[in-house]
DNA sequence: ATAATATAGTTGACAAAATCAACCAAACAA
DNA sequence: TTGTTTGGTTGATTTTGTCAACTATATTAT
């Protein structure tokens, strides 16, 4: 691994992170996949969001999100209620089971984060976030 | 994004990076996908590697890599030659066209990396790689 | 108010990517 | 020698992502 190690390093990170989350959550047993996790977390932190908010936030195809939502509804993790503001859309919220899952996700995430931070000082963590954010901002300049 | 956790930061990084590479490369026009780019780069920097090296390095399913390699061979980016050390495996190397692609990738990558490194000192880049590697090792401890 | 256009969401068809299991042949270890 | 491991291939399937068409409602311009 020579000069391109920044991206290699980060991709290795993402791979390991996903794996850790998946095994930590026992995701396959729960029938959870990556986008489920993302969506449940998003719905939890955005009370009264619509499917379209998810589409925009994650920049995904709306067909994909529609099916994901349908799936989460049949799993009884999420319910739809009419949106009084706009009769084309419905608001999504978590059922009790959905909330239970969301807190399981949060807990797992916190364990994984704990593990990630081993052997690192507070200063290093601080540096890491700051530097990564700088890099992301640099890239976004390029992409916009 | 609320607590701006480490993982959010890193996912944002990956998203921006992929986008920058894809548009920079005009990847879809060239028929290149994400794993093609990864593999071509890997083969270029690891003279005389086998499919299995790719499998191990990227921790992917060997069926996936086998098909990817087959694909790159039919695209005439890569050729296989017998491995004198082990008659089960064959060594992969780039054709001229493969080399052309690899250098196009390298150039794009270098532009993107240049952009990423703006506003960062050498020391910060050093820190970034070191810290990220520590985190990856931590996660791998968890996964193994 | 009407017509044209834009938006939220659903569905069908399909393509691309990833995964699993079975298998072969060569290599290695007992 | 025999049993086990390893590198690689293939078939079958699942998962994930994408495109286009369509309905219903909302919005904008006339």
Architecture (CATH level 2) name of chain A: Orthogonal Bundle
Mean pLDDT of chain A: 87
Biggest β-sheet: strands ordered side by side in the sheet of chain A:
1-3-2
Largest sheet composition of chain A? 3 strands, antiparallel
Give a verbal description of the structure.
Two copies of one chain form a homodimer. Chain A has a single domain, classed as Arc Repressor Mutant, subunit A. Helices cover 70% and strands 8% of the residues of chain A. Chain A has seven helices and three strands; from the N terminus they run αααβααββαα. Chain A has helices at 5-25, 27-30, 34-45, 51-58, 62-74, 96-116, 122-143; strands spanning 49-50, 78-82, 90-94. A three-stranded antiparallel sheet of chain A has the order 1-3-2. The first copy, chain A, is globular, with a radius of gyration of 18 Å. The mean pLDDT of chain A is 87. The interface between A and B is large, with 46 and 46 residues. The first copy, chain A, binds a DNA duplex (30 and 30 nucleotides) through α4 and α5.
Chart the SSEs and their pairings.
The structure is a homodimer of 144-residue chains.
Chain A: H1 5-25, H2 27-30, H3 34-45, E1 49-50, H4 51-58, H5 62-74, E2 78-82, E3 90-94, H6 96-116, H7 122-143
Antiparallel strand pairs in A: 1-3, 2-3
Helix pairs in contact in A: 1-6, 3-6, 4-5
The first copy, chain A, binds a DNA duplex (30 and 30 nucleotides) through residues 33-35, 50-52, 55, 60-67, 69-70, 83, 86-90.
């Amino acid at each position: 691994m020579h000069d391109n190690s920044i991206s290699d390093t980060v991709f290795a990170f993402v791979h390991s992170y996903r794996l850790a989350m998946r095994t930590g959550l026992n995701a396959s047993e729960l029938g959870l996949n990556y986008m489920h996790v993302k969506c449940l977390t998003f719905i939890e932190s955005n009370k009264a969001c619509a499917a379209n908010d998810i589409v925009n936030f994650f920049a995904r195809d709306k067909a994909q999100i529609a099916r994901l939502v349908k799936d989460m509804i049949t799993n009884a993790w999420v319910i739809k209620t009419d949106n009084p503001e706009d009769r084309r859309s419905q608001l999504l919220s978590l059922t009790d089971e959905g909330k239970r899952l969301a807190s399981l996700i949060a807990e797992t995430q916190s364990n994984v984060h704990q593990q990630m931070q081993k052997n690192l000082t507070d200063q290093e963590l601080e540096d890491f976030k700051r530097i990564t954010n700088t890099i992301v901002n640099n890239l976004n300049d390029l992409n916009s």
